[in-house]
Specification:
alpha/beta, six-stranded parallel beta sheet, two-stranded antiparallel ribbon, 13 helices, 45% helix
């Protein structure tokens, strides 16, 4: 065991460690199954897979309480599942079925499970950041102890609404954690080609809130730090915090394949991240018999979710006229 793991594991009990593994494994296997099914055209929307990036969502969400809220991006499968989103409803949504979490109308990029605090993901970059800030304002005005977490990629920091939202959250001292999942690329563009100051934390510091950069996709560091700041926000009325989590997506921007042939990144670059796979890292701390039991149960859960999606009906024409905003 390395020194980094000694520190991380020191604050976790066995139940917490197993929960981390269960959540990581559920997300990884679900997305691998999605990748297998996708070429059949049964899935009716584009998919942006989180494989390689799962540790951020899992680490953060395992540090939250059930009553906390999350807002995410179009690469939102990991966030949805890590926060307790209904797996059957998620797969049905990908299939465009009426039993989906958005009644088959949203697809992979628009997942929601309000009962479990998943307030929505969006296909448009940065659009859920102000939604999250607004929700945090409402929580503060109601004197509730819940916390909001806004997830977004490194590309979102280049949208004007990011700056406006950070500034507003600081001015109002809102109970929100901003989590930047920095995989270094906005689709195919390296951050060094997009920003004169490529250190995102350096860009955010002038807004006057605490910032932290967590490297190596470290699930223990993510969970422990978020738990610490969430406790401070609840107990001490501390305002917003910005957390940059360095991570890496293994697959192409959209779809289940690889994209190294495009030339914007290399297989050697990806290999370095794959060698520090957090799922494999956790496996070494799980008893073999327990691990196999966990994996078997989750594999069955996933198969049932896909069967549910297969057997569910498509929406009726009447659904075209529901959930419509009209002035």
């Amino acid at each position: 065991m390395n020194e980094q793991d000694k520190v991380g594991l020191g604050s976790l009990n066995e139940l917490e460690l197993y929960r981390l593994y269960e959540s990581l494994y559920r997300i990884r296997r679900t997305e691998e199954k999605i990748a297998d099914v996708y070429p059949t055209d049964k899935i009716k929307s584009p998919v942006h897979l989180s494989i390689g990036q799962e540790a951020v969502s899992v680490g953060v969400c395992e540090a939250l309480e059930p009553g906390d809220y999350v807002f995410g991006t179009y690469r939102g499968h990991a966030l949805y599942l890590a926060k307790g989103g209904d797996l059957k409803k998620m797969i049905a949504e990908l299939y465009g079925k009426v039993t989906g979490c958005a009644k088959g109308k949203g697809g992979s990029m628009h997942l929601v499970d309000v009962a479990n605090g998943v307030m929505g993901t969006s296909a448009v970059v940065a659009t859920t950041i102000p939604n999250a800030v607004g929700y945090a304002l409402g929580i503060k005005q109601q004197n509730r102890r819940n916390i909001v977490v806004s997830f977004f990629g490194d590309g979102a920091i280049e949208e004007g609404v990011f700056s406006e939202s950070i500034n507003f959250a600081v001015l109002k001292n809102l109970p929100i954690i901003f989590v930047c999942e920095n995989n270094n690329y906005a689709i195919h563009s390296d951050i060094a080609r997009r920003q004169s100051i490529s250190e995102i934390t350096d860009q955010v510091k002038p807004y006057g809130l605490p910032v932290r950069k967590i490297v190596d996709n470290d699930i223990f560091a993510i969970k422990n730090y978020v738990h610490s700041i969430a406790t401070q926000i609840r107990q001490n009325n501390m305002g917003p915090v910005f957390v940059e989590c360095m991570t890496y997506r293994w697959l192409e921007h959209v779809g289940p394949g690889s994209d190294f042939q495009l030339g914007y990144r290399s297989e050697d670059e990806a290999k370095k991240w794959m060698e520090t796979d957090q799922l494999l890292r956790l496996q070494q701390y799980i008893k073999d018999e327990d691990r196999l039991q966990i994996e078997h149960a989750i594999d069955e859960e996933i198969e049932k979710a896909f069967e549910f999606a297969e057997q569910s009906p498509f929406p009726s024409e009447d659904e075209l006229y529901t959930e419509i905003f009209k002035v």
